[in-house]
């Protein structure tokens, strides 16, 4: 779940989320990120809403436990082309990757 900084204070979001069963809480410059086990998603989401804390984004998604760093520009380019091609394919609904790369300019 992503919560805007304008939506609530860091302390209140962290307290409500962790008491409701969240696994992790991250304060980012853009807002707060609350991570839960999929089984605790709804109780945490409902607890936040009950306290008047609205989520900018709330969804169950995959988060890799291990990422593969890519620093070689050729590898980054190849992975980017592959993921773009897969995302554009009509039969692909969701795409998840363990590659940890930033798009290279050009």
From TrEMBL:
Domain spans labelled TACO1/YebC-like second and third: 3-98
InterPro entries membership: TACO1_YebC-like_2nd/3rd_dom, Transcrip_reg_TACO1-like, Transcrip_reg_TACO1-like_dom3, YebC-like
Gene3D superfamilies membership: 3.30.70.980
One GO term describing the cellular component: cytosol
Pfam families: Transcrip_reg
Record's protein name: TACO1/YebC-like second and third domain-containing protein
Source species of the chain: Pedosphaera parvula (strain Ellin514)
């Amino acid at each position: 779940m992503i919560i805007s900084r304008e939506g609530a204070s860091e302390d209140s979001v962290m307290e409500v989320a962790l008491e409701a069963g969240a696994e992790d809480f991250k304060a980012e410059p853009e807002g707060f990120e609350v991570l839960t086990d999929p089984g605790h998603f709804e109780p945490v989401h409902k607890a936040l809403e009950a306290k008047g804390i609205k989520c900018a984004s709330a969804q169950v998604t995959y988060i890799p436990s291990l990422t593969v760093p890519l620093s070689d520009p050729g590898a980054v380019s190849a992975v980017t082309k592959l993921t773009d091609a897969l995302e554009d394919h009509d039969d692909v609904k969701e795409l998840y990757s363990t590659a940890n790369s930033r798009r290279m300019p050009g």
